[in-house]
Every structure is written in C-alpha cells, then in structure tokens.
Design goal:
The chain is of the alpha/beta class and about 400 residues long. The chain has 14 helices and 12 strands. The longest helix has 24 residues.
C-alpha cells in the first residue's frame, strides 16, 4: 500500500503539480493500492482527477489571507495529521508515504519520526519554494529564520529511509553543490505539468501587445520591477501599443511600488483556476524577473504555466530556465539583468510579428519533455531504487 499525502495545501494551491504527482505514483505503482490523504476542496480543482485512488479526507486550513492565529492552527493541524498518517501506516502494510508538500516544521517532524520511530517505512517529501529560505537574503523575518533552521536540521539527519524530491534538475544540482543536501538524499525530476488545451486569442492580429506577470506579485519574485518596466513604457501604454497585466493577486508588501501603468486586482484572494486561465489566455508574453538570490533554489509553477499557455518568456538569466531554454529553439528572450531587459523590450515589440510564431513552436517542443509521461521513466527508476534499499 502507498500513502500519498497533501496535508498542507487546499483550494487552488499547487493544483497542477499535485495532480501530476499523484498520476506519477499511480503509473509507478500500477498494481498497488494508493490512499490519497487530501482536502476534497483541493481535489475538486484537479483537471485530471485520478480514479484509481482511495480518498482519505483531510481538512486543511486556508491561510490565503494573512492571519497569525490561522497559521498557528494550520501548523498544529499539519502535525496532527503527520502523527495520524504514521500511526495508520505502521499498523497497515504501507511501504511508502509520499508527501506532496509540507511546511518546514512538518518536514522536520517527518524527518524525526522517520529517523527515530518508523525506520521500516520509506518516506519522500517534495520540496518547493521553502528551499529559497536556504538563501541568506531570504531570511529577513524571524519566522523565515526559524523555518530555515528547521529545514537545515532536517537535512542534516541523513535518514536512510527518507528522500527529498526536487522538481528541477538545475535546482537539485545547486542544492548539492552548496552542500545543503547530498545526492543520496535526493530524487530529482524536472517539473511535470498537465498541459490542458487553452482557448486563446490571436496574439498577432491587432490590439496592444500584452506583457503579463503570472502568479502572485511579491518582492521575493522581484515583482516591483514589473511595475518599473511598465513605467518605462508609459508612452507606449498611453498610445495603446502595449499593456501590462498581473495575472494573480498582489501582496500588501507591493504597495509602495504600484502604479497606474499596470492592470492588477485589488482582491486578497487567489484567483480561481478558471479565472486564472481566462486572464492568462489574453497575454502575449510572460515576464519573469526572478534572480538567483530569491529563486536559485526554487522551481516555479508560474514558468510552467507560461509554457502551458504558450506565452513566450522574457526572463533574467537564471539556472531554472536552463531546462526550458534550449540552445537551438529558445521559447523567448533571456537577459543578463533587468537593465538589459528594460532597454531591449522595445525590440521585442518591433520583432513581435517576425518572432512570435517561432517562439510558440519552441514552447510546444519543450512541453513534450515535461509531460507526466516524459518524466515517468526517471521517476520510476529512482523510486524503485529507493524502495529496494
């Protein structure tokens, strides 16, 4: 028996990647029973709902709107579910517990349980944006410093029956090169995706060229530079040549940088998946301003969305883009820094009709390498090697 557990996310959070992860497990363990511990509100959002699993109901507290009390209750709830999962796993014939995501506190707790009490059961924890906390620049708040220490403490345990899944080969290499984890502790694949058929506008045939910021706008993504980029194009915006849009919510920390040259929602809530797709459909280019300080250790679901929607990418040079930008067929433009992007964006406009179709063709090629079926052989091989230890 296999346990797949998502006790940290609800509603629209991590919908696509969690759908991919459960599908990878189903395809890897075709003849085994899989119990999926998940919030039904979250499961209901999956575009490709698996039928070969037994659902175990989980109630995940939604902390979308910042509330310290809710965050505290969510952490307590997560710890309670971890205890419950290990208890039932130890009583049954469960040989793998797979966590789709955990808080750093949850990661530390699972590591301790695996190290001290449940050495017979194999465990995998998927790591996401929390890896960014290992970067010194991202430990500004007390809670971030505490979380970073919990992660480092978990990583140092060297637990034989536990591995960490990292969803980008470049990120896995960076983490091992800087000796936060060693190769024996890691399973790595490139971020898989379920590429839905997205209705779209005809981007070359008239209207302003739309530059979009996909996902939550926040300082760790350097989203303030998106507003600065728009301001530098104010004349073109006023003439209706270009438009800048944030497809997602804007965090309160962005308030000092907001301006009227970017269209954005004032709602605090995450966009519903359908609304997110609807808005993303209407952009032409996806703009990413991540740098190594904030995203050197983090794969990005928003980048996968850009590929899914075939919106050519404008980005700053960063390791996580190496998976996407092939030498022979790049799906957009990569710049050395923001200043270069700011200077060159007008050439993007000038060359729009000449290059756009080629970029989209390159994105189609890249998508083929990042489907669940394309990532399955590597995932299956690494997982079976781990289970045979």
């Amino acid at each position: 028996m296999i346990y797949c557990c998502e006790i940290n996310k609800t509603d629209n959070e991590h919908v696509i990647i969690n759908n991919c992860l459960i599908n990878l497990l189903i395809d890897t363990f075709e003849n085994e029973s899989i119990h999926f511990w998940i919030d039904r509100k979250h499961f209901s959002k999956f575009p490709d709902k698996p039928k070969q699993v037994s659902i175990v109901d989980v109630d995940v507290i939604n902390t979308e709107i910042a509330n310290k009390w809710k965050w505290f209750l969510k952490l307590i709830s997560e710890l309670w579910y971890i205890i419950k999962i290990f208890f039932f796993a130890s009583k049954g014939n469960v040989r793998l517990i797979y966590f789709c995501s955990l808080s750093p506190l949850g990661t530390y707790a699972v590591t301790l349980f695996s190290y001290i009490l449940f050495k017979r059961i194999r465990v995998i924890i998927t790591l996401h944006s929390e890896l960014g906390l290992l970067k010194e620049e991202n430990k500004k708040k007390i809670v971030e410093r505490v979380y970073a220490k919990l992660l480092l403490a978990a990583f140092r345990k060297q637990v034989r029956n536990l591995k960490f899944l990292i969803l980008n080969e470049e990120v896995a290499n960076s983490v091992t090169n800087e000796k936060f984890l060693n190769e024996r502790q890691i399973i790595s694949i490139d971020h898989p995706y379920i590429f839905e058929v997205i209705p779209e506008k005809s981007p070359i045939d008239g209207g302003p060229i739309v530059f979009g910021h996909l996902g939550v706008a926040k300082l760790s993504k350097r989203s303030h530079l998106f507003f600065k980029l728009a301001e530098s194009m104010k004349e073109e915006i006023e003439l209706g040549i270009v438009k800048f849009i944030v497809v997602g919510r804007v965090l309160a920390e962005m308030m000092p940088f907001l301006n009227n040259y970017v269209e954005y929602s004032t709602s605090n809530k995450l966009l519903d998946r359908d609304e997110y797709i609807k808005q993303a459909r209407d952009i032409d280019y996806s703009v990413f301003l991540y740098d190594d300080k904030s995203y050197g250790f983090t794969s990005s679901g928003a980048i996968m969305d850009a590929l899914a929607f075939e919106k050519p990418i404008l980005s700053i040079q960063l390791g996580i883009f190496n998976t996407i930008f092939g030498k022979d067929c790049p799906p957009g433009y990569v710049y050395n820094n923001f200043e270069e992007m700011n200077i060159s964006i007008r050439s993007v406009i000038d060359m729009h009709k000449a290059n756009y179709t080629t970029f989209r063709s390159c994105m189609t090629t890249t998508k083929e390498r990042l489907t669940v079926s394309a990532q399955l052989p590597s995932f299956k091989k690494q997982l079976r090697a781990f289970l045979s230890l």
